[in-house]
Amino acid sequence: MISSPALFFLLQPGRPSIAAPPLPSSPAPPLRGISISPVAARPISSLRSSSIRIISPHALPDPLLSLPSMDPQEVPDLLPPRPPERDFAGTPYVPVYVMLPLGVVNGNGEVVDADVLVGQLRVLKAAGVDGVMVDCWWGNVEAHRPQEYNWTGYKRLFHMIRELKLKLQVVMSFHECGGNVGDDVSIPLPHWVTEIGRSNPDIYFTDRAGRRNTECLSWGIDKERVLQGRTGVEVYFDYMRSFRVEFDEYFEDGIISEIEIGLGACGELRYPSYPAKHGWKYPGIGEFQCYDRYLQKSLRRAAEARGHTIWARAPDSAGHYNSEPNLTGFFSDGGDYDSYYGRFFLNWYSQVLVDHADRVLMLARLAFEGSDIAVKVSGVHWWYKTASHAAELTAGFYNPCNRDGYASIAAVLKKHGAALNFTCVELRTMDQHEVFPEAFADPEGLVWQVLNAAWDAGIPVASENALPCYDRDGFNKILENAKPLNDPDGRHLLGFTYLRLTKVLFERANFVEFERFVKRMHGEAVLDLQV
């Protein structure tokens, strides 16, 4: 479920935990505004938080730093001082939700470890958490036959949540679970869909080598009757309508506060351009995913309409999953991405993404009339400091340094009254550069661009963290993005969803920091501000 490749990178065997590669000797490519990227861990900030834990009366000592021969009071002097914290007392109330485990409801319609879960939810409620987020997996609910839906497990889960007076964010998860970083369970697409895929594999996104990605259905079949007489968007609509009918009382009582509509890989609005299952490793640029026959037909039509049938092809100089942009003919500075053909292809490729969002959100608005809906957009921040923004281009975001690739997405969300949920708000560009400088990543710049594109369009913005976050520096970064300092319009996030409920979160030192973070998101005062 976690789509950020940072965690994937950090889990690779043999990778040093703190040491960073040497800085590149050549000057960095052109910058675009402030840089921001959600990819790597925070080795320096985690050390800082360790030093604070030693002297804090609320935390446990860090065994790595409390050696017998060392005076704990001297440890903070060995590290850069922590910057002063902003006082968020009296600031707007931003609700905080917590994602439940991916497999909280299993394929048999049972709530997994229900008694343990209830105890954890009570602790979250006591800490002031507003609600939880739950994935409703298409592969579990409509598993065996078309239009036969089994909502039993989710009914039990939702009843437990309502009894504790927590709110619900529900995700319509039309993708498979398993194969992405952080996925700890396997939930494939419905069995009847994968059966169709065996005889017609073009229902899946396909790369240049012809490898099929079974994580979600190609947007090329949105209007093709290839799913036992139904189109892709009809299948999504029927599923959403069934959910709305089954859980009507939760909508009427206001327990369900938001529905997030899954629109692609990992439930995000993007192409599956960087799949680990096909050998991708961070910070590879990824590959275009438009080689199924339905998207190829769409590309041919677009080229014919333009009057250049020779353009009915994807780029042949775009490298492979793990290429660097400057080593390709298409993405390098002055490369074909900015040629007449390149602009035509990227316009088409990104428009397919926008059109898919338009079609599904129109039906989601019908199914969930009067309810809040949202769309999750991934934070593809690596190579953001280069001219082409190659990793964003293969993911479907036409966002090179001379074009705003998120304005069109904000516009389609505005059209259907949907909020934008963006990831990686806890990441700092400096930390990314320390871990992997050659990625030219800029999470902070990307967050700034996307949040402002949404706010300029007049749509609400929510966010979530891309990687597990337990330290004060990470929480402070989230707070800064949630409530920008001196914003002339007083803009702030609609809400924040914390990834994810685990046993590690409830470890004493971690939960103390989390509870403190919740208070500050709510605009409450805390007594231990670092000044």
Describe the SSE topology:
Blueprint: H1 5-10, H2 43-55, E1 96-99, H3 114-126, E2 131-137, H4 138-141, H5 152-163, E3 167-173, H6 191-199, E4 204-206, E5 212-217, H7 232-246, H8 248-252, E6 256-261, H9 293-306, H10 340-367, E7 373-377, H11 390-395, H12 407-415, E8 418-422, H13 429-435, H14 443-457, E9 461-464, H15 472-482, E10 495-498, H16 508-521
GO molecular function: beta-amylase activity
InterPro entries: GH, Glyco_hydro_14, Glyco_hydro_14_CS, Glyco_hydro_14B_pln
Active site: 268, 464
Structural description of this entry:
By secondary structure, the chain is α/β, with parallel strands linked by helices. The chain has a domain at 96-276 and 353-522: Alpha-Beta Barrel (TIM Barrel), CATH 3.20.20.80. It has helices at residues 5-10, 43-55, 114-126, 138-141, 152-163, 191-199, 232-246, 248-252, 293-306, 340-367, 390-395, 407-415, 429-435, 443-457, 472-482, 508-521, and strands at residues 96-99, 131-137, 167-173, 204-206, 212-217, 256-261, 373-377, 418-422, 461-464, 495-498.
Task: Indicate the CATH architecture of the domain at 96-276 and 353-522.
Answer: Alpha-Beta Barrel
Q: How much strand content do the residues show? A: 5-15%
Q: What's the Cα radius of gyration?
A: 23 Å
Give the full name of the CATH homologous superfamily of the domain at 96-276 and 353-522: Glycosidases
The parts where pLDDT drops under 50 for at least 5 residues are 1-70
Which CATH first-tier class of the domain at 96-276 and 353-522 would you pick? Alpha Beta
Question: Structural class given helices, strands, pairing?
Answer: alpha/beta
Q: In which range does the helix fraction lie?
A: 25-40%
Q: Output the helix-strand order.
A: HHEHEHHEHEEHHEHHEHHEHHEHEH
Physical arrangement of strands within the biggest beta sheet: 1-2-3-6-7-8-9-10
Kindly state the number of beta strands: 10
**What is the overall silhouette?**
globular
Under CATH, the topology of the domain at 96-276 and 353-522 can be stated as: TIM Barrel
Distance between the termini: 37 Å
Question: What's the average pLDDT?
Answer: 88
Characterize the main sheet. Answer: 8 strands, parallel, barrel
How many DSSP H or I helices? Answer: 16
